[in-house]
């Protein structure tokens, strides 16, 4: 009894169950890897919840793997459950995974577009699509729904399989293997297994559930010798099998069966609905939309059902399908908008269901340790993407962080760190979590490093340190070791880091490595990690950067100068953190680490061989640090913007000084002298040179916020020494004035009282108000005294 099915077809699943209930076979044979026969009893476990998949992977190469997915509405899953419920043996009869894993690797190595045998026309994709096209359908899903899912058997439970076998026979006659030579070997193996079962249980006692495409080939009379000849000499590997959770989204992709479905959530609903599937589906949709605060009433559901039924009649369909219900939802519940409709498709038509497997399922030791940690830390794998906020001051959150960082180091990217919307302190972390079935393969691969997550991450970090390609890779690895708290791996990484740093003479490499190293020091306080060795290497690395940076900045072209500028910014930030983050480093900072860096910047700012963008950047960093007086910065700018400097070099200097999103626009707004120098230089650039410097200037000033650009334009229009005033005829920009406007200041006091919770009836709070008034009067007196001094000076 050959039951040809559509993989993951709810109509096929119902038909299989009906035939098995009538025929009562003595054994059920199912398309699947025979190595999984020992795992079949787990399908009856109460903790097994589909969608799930059989995972086969090569023992010596876990990355070589394959999946056989099962949904609740998969005919193969229904056959398994029926056999277990009725005490009937069940077996898998497809080509063993030991062979198929090798063949899949060989097929992956074939060039794309390799031609099928010349005597056969290729049949790509789902064979059912060819039948749908022959029937005049442009959508195979709709054709399948019409001819199988929505039609009854008419009392003959075998009718669907008979008709489908005839259709597939016609396809096999027209296309042969359709370019699928691998199927010949698989079908030979299946025929041998069917013969063996028939010998044990009789011809009438065997039920075979397989893809409909294979039925005509399995029905053919072939000799045992011919089938064995096809299987002779097949290469194989040692393979392990287990059950793993699967997701609805993965069901929508081509899996181990080579068949995917576009709407697993819809098919699950059709299989599980006892009656009135359209009404029940549209009620689900209404519930989802209400959860999203859309107004959907019972009347909407009634009208949507009527519209779906009407559309089915107009289109000549036996019952409303997914297309009709979707059109009805769009028109009635979504007001014609596809925005809420996309939510319906994502949450219901596809769905974010993640299956579960029992603890007794075989697993590599690393997977068992990960499962234990997930349960202890209450981090349940979920198919739906979600954000996880961690406060590292809490022990449970700190352990979660360590686990996620260790998994990332092992290549198991269950969580991806993202920018936090709240606090930016080092004790906060935000992760985006989403469990994908492929991560089970990654865990199996990582199992070669150890039997626990901690041991595996430690061994992987040590190996990565030895094979790291650059110094920056080693410093990045050191940072990840601190984040993952791998105390046993850190000494190895630090030893490699010290050796690489001592041998690497490229200042760019050193400058690129320093920031990650210094960032790592920040984790010492919150993660209680000893970072003294790391701090010593960082300080030594900084000294080497100080010595080598001036020569490395000489005679660079424009592209190299821009890259070096990024290195200078990174080192500047690192030096700022190096003395402030780790206890015991303050003395090193006070002894000259920060002043040494300032000396390097001073050298860069005045050396003619250094590109203008680097000289300008050095001046700006010194000015921001308070290591350079504003007058001196203006003098250096004046020298650079003098007629003796090439316009391109002067423009590059300006970019380094006020460009790159460094707040240079506000600096020009508040310092008229610097703005006047830039304005005077810009208006004096010769016409033939202006075109050359325009792209660079546009890149510099286009990075400013619109408000800053508008204010600069107003200042330049009014000319130097004439700041716009909000009190001069009301035409200026608010916030600028030569003198204090008492009336405007008084108008702010009620708001200040409100913000501070002050009340004039409270004597204590009244003191605060008086103090504010006194401070304002003192400020006015000081301004008057300053004006008097200016008058005397004049």
UniProtKB/TrEMBL annotation:
Protein name as catalogued: Uncharacterized protein
The superkingdom listed in its UniProt entry is Bacteria
Locate the coiled-coil region(s) and give their ranges: none
The record ties this protein, via PANTHER family, to: OUTER MEMBRANE LOLAB LIPOPROTEIN INSERTION APPARATUS, PTHR30634:SF14
Basic and acidic residues bias (residue ranges): 775-786
Pfam families named in the record: DUF5682
Q: Where is this region: Disordered?
A: 103-125, 775-794
Show the InterPro entries listed in the entry.
DUF5682 (IPR043737), LolB (IPR050458)
Organism lineage string: Bacteria, Bacillati, Actinomycetota, Actinomycetes, Kitasatosporales
Q: Which species expresses this protein natively?
A: Streptomyces akebiae
TM stretches of this protein: none
């Amino acid at each position: 009894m050959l039951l040809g099915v559509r993989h993951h077809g709810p109509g096929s699943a119902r038909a299989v169950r009906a035939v098995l209930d009538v025929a009562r076979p003595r054994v059920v044979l199912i398309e699947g890897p025979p190595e999984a026969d020992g795992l079949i009893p787990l399908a009856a476990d109460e903790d097994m919840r589909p969608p799930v998949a059989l995972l086969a992977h090569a023992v010596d190469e876990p990355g070589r793997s394959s999946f056989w997915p099962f949904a609740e509405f998969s005919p193969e899953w229904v056959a398994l459950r029926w056999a277990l419920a009725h005490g009937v043996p069940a077996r898998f009869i497809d080509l063993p995974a030991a062979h198929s894993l090798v063949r899949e690797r060989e097929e992956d190595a074939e060039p794309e577009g390799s031609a099928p045998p010349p005597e056969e026309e290729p049949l790509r994709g789902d064979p059912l699509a060819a039948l749908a096209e022959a029937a005049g359908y442009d959508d195979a899903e709709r054709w399948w729904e019409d001819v199988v899912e929505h039609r009854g058997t008419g009392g003959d439970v075998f009718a669907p399989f008979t008709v489908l076998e005839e259709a597939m026979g016609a396809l096999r006659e027209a296309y042969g293997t359709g370019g699928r030579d691998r199927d010949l070997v698989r079908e030979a193996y299946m025929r041998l297994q069917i013969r063996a079962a028939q010998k044990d249980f009789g011809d009438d006692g065997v039920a075979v559930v397989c893809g409909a495409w294979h039925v005509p080939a399995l029905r053919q009379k072939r000799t045992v010798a011919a089938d064995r000849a096809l299987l002779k000499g097949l290469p194989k590997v040692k393979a392990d099998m287990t059950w793993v959770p699967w997701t609805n989204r993965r069901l929508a992709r081509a899996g181990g069966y080579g068949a995917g479905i576009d709407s697993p959530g819809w098919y699950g609903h059709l299989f599980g609905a006892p009656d009135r599937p359209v009404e029940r589906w549209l009620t689900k949709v209404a519930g989802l939309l209400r959860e999203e605060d859309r107004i959907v009433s019972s009347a909407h559901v009634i009208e949507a059902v009527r519209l779906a039924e009407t559309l089915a009649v107009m289109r000549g369909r036996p019952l409303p399908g997914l297309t009709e219900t979707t059109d009805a939802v769009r028109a009635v519940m979504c007001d014609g908008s596809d925005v809420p409709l996309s939510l319906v498709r994502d949450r219901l038509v596809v769905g974010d269901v993640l299956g579960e497997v029992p603890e007794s399922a075989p697993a590599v030791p690393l997977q068992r340790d990960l499962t234990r940690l997930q349960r202890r830390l209450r981090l349940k794998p979920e198919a739906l993407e979600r954000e996880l906020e961690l406060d590292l001051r809490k022990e449970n959150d700190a352990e979660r962080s360590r686990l996620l960082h260790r998994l990332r180091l092992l290549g198991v990217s269950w969580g991806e760190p993202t920018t936090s919307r709240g606090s930016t302190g080092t004790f906060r972390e935000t992760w985006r979590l989403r469990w994908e079935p492929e991560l089970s393969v990654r865990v199996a691969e990582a199992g070669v490093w150890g039997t626990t997550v901690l041991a595996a991450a430690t061994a992987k970090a040590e190996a990565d340190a030895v094979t790291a390609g650059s110094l920056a890779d080693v410093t990045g690895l050191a940072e990840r070791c601190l984040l993952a708290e791998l105390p046993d791996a850190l000494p190895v990484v630090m030893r490699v880091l010290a050796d690489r740093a001592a041998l690497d003479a490229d200042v760019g490499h050193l400058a690129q490595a320093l920031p990650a190293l210094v960032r790592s020091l920040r984790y010492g306080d919150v993660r209680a990690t000893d970072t003294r060795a790391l701090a010593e290497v960082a300080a030594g690395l900084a000294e080497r950067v100080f010595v080598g940076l001036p020569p490395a900045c000489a005679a660079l072209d424009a592209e190299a100068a821009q890259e070096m500028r990024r290195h200078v910014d990174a080192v500047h930030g690192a030096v700022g953190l190096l003395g402030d983050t780790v206890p015991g480093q303050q003395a090193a900072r006070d002894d000259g680490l920060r002043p040494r860096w300032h000396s390097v910047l001073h050298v860069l700012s005045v050396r003619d061989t250094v590109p203008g963008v680097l000289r300008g950047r050095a001046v700006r960093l010194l000015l921001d640090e308070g290591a350079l007086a504003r007058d001196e910065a203006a003098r250096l700018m004046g020298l650079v913007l003098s007629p003796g400097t090439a316009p391109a070099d002067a423009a590059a200097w300006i970019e380094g000084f006020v460009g790159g999103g460094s707040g240079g626009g506000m600096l020009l707004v508040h310092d008229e002298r610097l703005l006047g120098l830039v304005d005077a230089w810009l208006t004096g650039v010769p016409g033939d040179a202006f075109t050359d410097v325009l792209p660079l200037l546009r890149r510099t000033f286009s990075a400013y916020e619109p408000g800053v650009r508008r204010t600069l334009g107003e200042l330049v229009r009014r000319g130097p020494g004439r700041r716009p005033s909000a009190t001069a005829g009301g035409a200026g920009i608010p916030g600028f004035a030569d003198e204090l406007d008492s009336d405007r200041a008084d108008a702010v006091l009620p708001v200040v009282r409100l913000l501070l919770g002050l009340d004039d009836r409270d004597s204590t709070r009244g003191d605060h108000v008086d103090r504010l008034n006194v401070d304002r009067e003192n400020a006015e007196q000081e301004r008057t005294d300053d004006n008097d001094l200016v008058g005397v000076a004049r």
